[in-house]
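B., you asked whether I could sanity-check this one before it goes into the benchmark set. Here's the sequence:
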Amino acid sequence: MTTTKVELQAKIERVHAARMKVEEFVAAGGDLRSQEAVPIGLELARACNSLCEEFGGQVLDEVNVK
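And here's what the prediction gave me:
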């Protein structure tokens, strides 16, 4: 299945939004190794993975949260 320009742009925007959340978290004094950072990091990893799949690869295996 071919990805449309709109779908690709949505994936790029998702990565950007996730990156901005990380930057805002850190700017507010957040610790990237804290529990509060886990959902932010997961979203960034999943967004990057989704975009990388367009190039035939994955950055990470699926992350399972328990």
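One thing to flag: The longest helix spans residues 5-27. Otherwise nothing jumped out at me.
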